Amino acid sequence: MLSRVAADLYWLARYAERAENTARILDVASRLSSLPTNYGGTTNEWESAMISTGAETLFRERYDEANRRNVIDFLAFSPDNPSSIFSCLDVARRSARSVRTAITGEMWTAINDAWLELRHYSVDAMSPRQLAEFLAFVKEACLRFDGSAYRTMLRTDAHAFFRLGTFVERGDATARILDVKYHVLLPEGDTVGGGLDYFQWASLLRATSALTSYQWVFRDALRPWRVAELLTLRKELPRSIANCAENTLWYLDQLANDYGRQGPAQRAARAYHAGLANGTVDAIYREGLHEFLQRVIRENNALSVAIEAQYLR
Questions:
Q1: Which residue intervals of 99-156 are DSSP H helices?
Q2: Residues sharing a CB contact under 8 Å with residue 24, sequence separation 6 or more, in sequence order
Q3: Is 238 exposed, middle or buried, given 0-12, 13-18 or 19+ CB atoms closer than 10 A?
Q4: In this model, does residue 129 exceed pLDDT 70?
Q5: How does DSSP assign the chain, residue by residue?
Q6: What does the DSSP assignment read for 194-234?
Q7: Are 311 and 3 in contact (CB under 8 A)?
Q8: Measured between alpha carbons, how far is 46 from 242 in angstroms, rounded to an integer?
Q9: What is the pLDDT of residues 56-112, one digit of tens each?
Q10: 249: buried, middle or exposed (CB in 10 Å: 19+, 13-18, 0-12)?
């Protein structure tokens, strides 16, 4: 496969996944902002949502305040933000159009319909109910696109590059969401395990579609260390960091088998996966959850760089 085609497939998957993850981040911010004031404390959920995307510097250059309207505009509709839902679906659609022969008709229809529907929404018409409808549309559109790929793509190297993009992006997003909850959302002076803390952890699990999974795995009330374990080390959860690392390694091994050689990307993926497979939640807390997640983000980014250098240039 030409490196240009592989790169388009890889980034097509990454941007579609990023659009969905951004919608999930906005969803949890909206849920938290609607809590009664006796639960809400002094926290700024909208600022936390913006920080979790890693685009704080860019936001500060364009907006004076991290309020509801500005954050929704920046994360959902701003063409100046390369990670906004608008920008992600725009790039994904252009990438899909450039590799029409490598994807299926169902995939093209799903991403093209999502782009056309997106243009009917604007930040000026975003009541709480309309925002919920908009975010549901984005998540459903991205799930439809991902599902069409799962059901219709041939299991060739094209599919492997597409899935690599999905799992690299998903692992990064899970780490960022969990890190911001741990360090930003609980206001100074509030009690860990208190009412506000409970609702924040529950909203985070909803944002990662993991609330029911938590109840199945642990069958207990929400505990911060167990939420951290589920989202980092439990490979049964599709959005956990461990699951993403395992799948990334699997698809890189498939490419190595197809092409008859391994390289830096496989070695980086193996080291990344081994660190998670051999990890424990006690070890994570001894290191510090924030420090662990920052290391995960760095290793995931380094893995992405290795994939690009080996296959996509």
A1: 105-118, 128-152
A2: 135, 139, 173, 177, 207, 208, 209
A3: middle
A4: yes
A5: --HHHHHHHHHHHHHHHHHHHHHHHHHHHHHHHTS-HHHHTT--HHHHHHHHTT-HHHHHHH-S---HHHHHIIIII-TT-TTSHHHHHHHHHHHHHHTTTTS-HHHHHHHHHHHHHHTT--GGG--HHHHHHHHHHHHHHHHHHHHHHHHHS-SSHHHHHHHHHHHHHHHHHHHHHHHHIIIIIS-TTPPTTSHHHHHHHHHHHHHTT-HHHHHHHH-SS--HHHHHHHHHT-TTSTTSHHHHHHHHHHHHHHHHHHHT---HHHHHHHHHHHHHHT--HHHHHHH-HHHHHHHHHHHHHHHHHHHHHHH--
A6: SHHHHHHHHHHHHHTT-HHHHHHHH-SS--HHHHHHHHHT-
A7: yes
A8: 28
A9: 899 999 999 989 999 999 999 999 999 999 999 999 999 999 999 999 999 999 999
A10: buried
Stretch 156-176: mean pLDDT = 95
CA dist 61 and 310 (Å) reads 35
Residues 170-217 have pLDDT tens digits of 999 999 888 877 655 555 544 445 556 677 788 788 888 899 999 999
Q: Which residue is it, tokens 């597409």?
A: 162
Tokens of 188: 């100074």
Residue 269: both structure tokens together: 């993926």
Quote the pTM value.
0.90
Contacts of 213 (CB under 8 A, 6+ apart): 205, 230, 236, 237
Torsion of CA 80, 25, 289, 211, to 10 degrees: -160
Give the amino acid at 277.
A
